[in-house]
Amino acid sequence: MNNDVIVCNPRPLRFWQRFYLLEILKGLGVTLRHFLGNLFSRKYTVTVEWPEVKREYSERMRGRHVLLTRENGSPRCVACYMCETACPADCIHIEADEDPNAPVEWEKQPKVFTIDLLRCVFCGFCVDACPKEAIIMTRTHEMAFRTREEAVIGLDQLLYRGPLSELDMGYRPYYGEPRTQIKLPIPTKK
User: Fold this and answer.
1) Is residue 180 part of a domain?
2) Is the pTM of the predicted complex or chain greater than 0.70?
3) 80 a known binding residue?
4) Which controlled-vocabulary keywords does the entry list (predicted)?
5) CA 55 to CA 50: how far, in whole Å?
6) How many distinct structural domains can be found in the chain?
């Protein structure tokens, strides 16, 4: 076993490298070029003057959560805990209760359904996991809170009882087009 230590001495820095003067001047040049370009031309401006100018977002944007309701006004959620299990941030809390209006006697409904928006990472796993398509994400992203308690939204704030056409729906399950079978050529014997 060879225990020799190899010492590598770095090359000594030159005068200009020691003071980083050239790199500082290059950085100042880039900053000055962008400043003057934006000062005299609005063509390259990247700042959006919000709230006067609002940015357009994708159709599948992940914003605020919404629980959908059935025709009779009860929540579609059957308290199966799949969204709570799928959540990587552990921000969803559900407590189940029996549904007195259910067509099946063992069906449940959420007694407590809360989402802590300060912990939520808006990944959409809860939407993908829901078997009843009860939870979707809207395109609403303007959420301001004064206290941490306001950021924990409950069942009464999550339920949406209006028509879906008025809801600015964002991320929801996407099943795509039905897959077609690809026909491969059958090898022939020679």
Assistant:
1) no
2) no
3) yes
4) 4Fe-4S, Cell membrane, Iron, Iron-sulfur, Membrane, Metal-binding, NAD, Quinone, Repeat, Translocase, Ubiquinone
5) 8
6) 2
